[in-house]
Structure formats: C-alpha cells, structure tokens
C-alpha cells in the first residue's frame, strides 16, 4: 500500500484527501493514516491538512523497494525489484535470479555489498548509505558474441540518466563514467551462456552518489556526485532515471542487434574522442588518436601514420584521465 500511496501523493502538486486515497485503494481511512505515519517515520515530509488531505513536501534519500517501485515509469526495466539492505553482490543475486527464471528487466539494488565485484577480479568498495549498487537481468535473444555491446548500452543509459543531475558527464570507453577526469561509475557485465545461446546477462552498475572519502588506492581517481555537485543526491530517482534510459536504449539496440542507433549519442559523450590515447594491446603498446565507436562498440583510432584501427579489447589510457600522463 505504501507504494500506491506514494504514487498517488506524487501524482499531483496539490493535496489528496484521505477519502480519495481510501476509495481508490479500497482500504479504510485509518489504514491510510497509519501508512502516512509510517512514511513520516521513514523521513518523508508529508503534510496533513484538515479538510484538504495529504501533500508530499520532501522525500529524503530513502532507498526502499516501495520508494523505487513508486518512482519507476518503465514497462519492464526495473519493474521487478529485489531490494537488499545488505547482500554479497547484486551481480550474484541477479545471476541466481536469472537461473531461477526471474523476468527480463529484474533489478537488484543493495544499500551495502559485502563482496562487491569490479572488473578484472578487483573488488568494488560498497559501504552502506551513500552509493548505488544495482544489477539488471537481461534476456536478449542475440548471439553470445554480441553481449559485450550491452555494456555500452548501459554506459550510455547511465550517462544519460544521471546526466540530468550532472551535465559534465563523459564516458571513458568502453564503460567507465567520469566527471572532471575522475571515475564516478563502474559497470560489470557478466553472462551465462552456451556456445550459441545466451541464458541471461547481468549488467551491474556502481554509482558513487554521496561518498566524500574513498579508500587510499582510488582516492586520486574516484569521485562522487556529491563531490562534483556540492550537494547530496537522492539515490532512488537516479536509479529510476537510469532504468528509463535503459529501456529505450535497449529497445533501439535490439532492432538492429548493434549500436548503429546509439553510437552517435555515445560518441558525443566519449572523453577519448579526438584525444591521444595509449593502446596497451597484447602484442604492442602504441599511441593513437581516438575517433569514436563503430556500430559494434569497437573504438576507432587513427595511428600516427594515418592508418585506422579498431580496438576491440585491451586497455586504453587517455591523457589526463586518471593515471596516464
Ligand atoms: C568496475 O570495476 O569498474 C566495475 C564495478 C562494478 C560495480 C557494481 S556495484 C553493483 C554490481 N555488483 C557488483 O558486485 N559489482 C557491480
């Protein structure tokens, strides 16, 4: 009932009467009042005015299943939410949910992770109360070798979703989101597949929202929305905004099963674009100028002799962007 009441309160700038709520939800006015009190206890500022009804003035940074459900405007992305105060890793939760048959678009969100995972076997620090740790379950009917493009779809969706709050956002190919040269978001995509068939894909996203301190190893290279904007952010609306962008971008991706409908928007946000990058490949390390991505998500670079190359995997460092100078 909390979710429905939150939705009703948010559906108008004015007041909603207790009578209206109880009629629409088919519950007693006493039950409505009790739920409003519970919302107030959680920190929602709900005004109750005699003869007018209820009005929501301010929502704190609450991240509960009900808050997330009440904000979701999508059809499938984030429509089935698994919420955890603490879990090992939302990527593991989604992998398990995927194995157990959870629907496409299922979203796991945690306030804290005890075994947060980063790329290349690194850990992802996941303290409680100030960051977003979430993973989405995707069930695309595409060949397994196309799944890596989903990371790019997510990177674009996160950048566009949180870009409404912080406009200076850029993407470091393929899937780090950065602001002022520091990392704000990390994405980890994992897949359960057979040789020619994808069972499901888990796309995990870690967003530093209100952190003001980082572990020593990443203190120089990481940042948060709060540090960059100068004020705290609310996590649930950020998650809802990313889900909206994901739903649209994923559907565009599926039409062609490649990134042709997204690559221009992605390339426009690319920090590497028109900059010198260092390609640390398996065979050689060289310097080149990044041009953008192609429809498969490969980074196009121009070498010093003018020849063009496509970078599929490996490490790309950009001058001035954390670490490489
Ligand atoms: C990276 O190394 O840049 C990727 C970090 C991905 C972290 C997120 S947090 C939510 C999800 N669960 C995990 O264990 N990892 C991802």
Can you walk through the features of this model?
This protein has 325 residues and is an alpha+beta fold. The protein is built from 9 helices and 14 strands. The protein has a 7-stranded mixed β-sheet with strand order 3-4-5-9-8-7-6, with helices on both faces. The longest helix is centred in the last third of the chain and has 22 residues, at 235-256. The model has no long low-confidence stretch (mean pLDDT 91). The structure holds biotin (BTN). Biotin binds at residues 89-91, 113, 116-119, 122, 124, 133-135, 186-188, 204-206. Biotin (BTN) binds at residues 89-91, 113, 116-119, 122, 124, 133-135, 186-188, 204-206.
List the bound ligands. biotin
Unreliable runs? none
What order do the strands of the largest sheet run in, or round the barrel if closed? 3-4-5-9-8-7-6
Secondary structure tally, helices: 9
Rg (C-alpha, Å): 22 Å
Per DSSP, what share of the residues sits in E-state strands of 2 or more residues?
25-35%
Give the strand tally: 14
The topology string of helices and strands comes to HHHEEHEHEEHEEEEHHHEEEEE
Mean of all residue-level pLDDT scores? 91
Summarize the structure.
Helices cover 29% and strands 28% of the residues. With 325 residues, the chain is an alpha+beta fold.
List the helices and strands and how they pair.
Elements (H helix, E strand, L loop, with lengths): L1 H9 L7 H8 L3 H13 L3 E5 L3 E6 L6 H7 L9 E7 L2 H10 L7 E7 L17 E8 L10 H15 L6 E3 L3 E4 L2 E13 L2 E12 L16 H5 L5 H22 L6 H6 L7 E5 L4 E9 L5 E5 L4 E4 L3 E4 L7
Parallel strand pairs: 3-4
Antiparallel strand pairs: 1-2, 4-5, 5-9, 6-7, 7-8, 8-9, 10-11, 10-14, 11-12, 12-13
């Amino acid at each position: 009932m909390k979710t429905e009441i939150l939705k009703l309160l948010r559906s108008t700038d004015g007041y909603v009467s207790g009578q209206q709520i109880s009629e629409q939800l088919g519950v007693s006015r006493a039950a409505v009042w009790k739920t409003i009190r519970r919302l107030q206890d959680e920190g929602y500022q709900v005004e109750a005015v005699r003869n007018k009804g209820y009005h929501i003035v301010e929502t704190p940074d609450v991240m509960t299943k009900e808050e997330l459900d009440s904000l979701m405007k999508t059809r499938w992305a984030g429509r089935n939410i698994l919420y955890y105060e603490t879990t090992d890793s939302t990527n593991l939760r989604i992998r398990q949910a995927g194995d157990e048959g959870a629907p496409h678009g299922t979203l796991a969100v945690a306030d804290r992770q005890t075994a947060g995972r980063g790329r290349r076997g690194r850990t992802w620090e996941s303290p409680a109360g100030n960051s977003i740790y979430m993973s989405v379950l995707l069930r695309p009917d595409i060949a397994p070798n196309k799944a890596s493009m989903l990371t790019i779809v997510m990177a674009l969706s996160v950048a566009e979703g949180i870009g409404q709050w912080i406009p200076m956002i850029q993407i470091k190919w393929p899937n780090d989101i950065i602001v002022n040269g520091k990392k704000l978001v990390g994405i980890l995509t994992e897949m359960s597949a057979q040789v020619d068939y994808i069972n499901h894909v888990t796309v995990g996203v870690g967003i530093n929202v209100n952190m003001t301190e980082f572990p020593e190893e990443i203190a120089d290279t990481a940042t948060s929305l709060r540090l960059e904007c100068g004020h705290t952010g609310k996590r649930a609306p950020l998650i809802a905004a990313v889900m909206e962008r994901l739903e649209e971008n994923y559907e565009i991706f599926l039409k062609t099963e490649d990134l042709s409908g997204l690559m221009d928007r992605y390339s426009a946000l690319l920090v590497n674009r028109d900059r010198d990058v260092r390609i640390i490949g398996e065979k050689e390390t060289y310097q080149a100028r990044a041009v953008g991505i192609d429809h498969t998500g490969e980074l196009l670079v121009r070498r010093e002799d003018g020849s063009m190359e496509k970078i599929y995997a490996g490490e790309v460092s950009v001058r001035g962007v954390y670490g490489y100078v």
